[in-house]
Amino acid sequence: MGFKKLEAWDMPGNPFEMIEHQAALFTAGTKEHFNTMTIGWGLMGDLWNVPAFTAYVRPSRYTWQFAEENDCFTVSFFGTPRPQALAVLGSKSGRDMDKIHQSGLTPVELEGQVAFEEAQVVLICKKIYVDDLKPEKIPQQWKDKFYGDGDYHRIYTGQVLSVYVKE
Known about the structure:
Layout: E1 3-6, H1 15-21, E2 24-30, E3 33-39, E4 43-47, E5 50-57, H2 62-69, E6 72-77, H3 85-91, H4 99-103, E7 107-110, E8 113-116, E9 121-132, H5 140-146, E10 154-166
Antiparallel strand pairs: 1-10, 2-3, 2-6, 4-5, 5-10, 6-9, 7-8, 9-10
């Protein structure tokens, strides 16, 4: 089973539902050397008149170095319910093990970027803005809840170059 390429503006689905209720992976690197992680936060919309996706990656995550070193990233959505394979990818580190193999997912290359055959929708994104969250700008209630360890996310906003949907 393959993918059909769409223009970003033709992407099916509700972005709020996709981000909040579907399983998603953020992936950066090359087919020979990449890492991926489960994400639960993200923003989709229009930035500077282009379709964009914003992801949040903590510097402590192994995937962070791949996001730093590469111009592009993918976001793979798996639909509902959340596949058990993504639990491995969100709780284990690629530094310590071959978590892709353990997850049972199948990496595929789309436009030179890594995604997964089991995904329902894949976004191919080119970084257009990177910044760090500013701790002093975060309301105390969210700092207390999400950043007690001081490991603040880096923000990666990418122009959505292409969307692939499962055929």
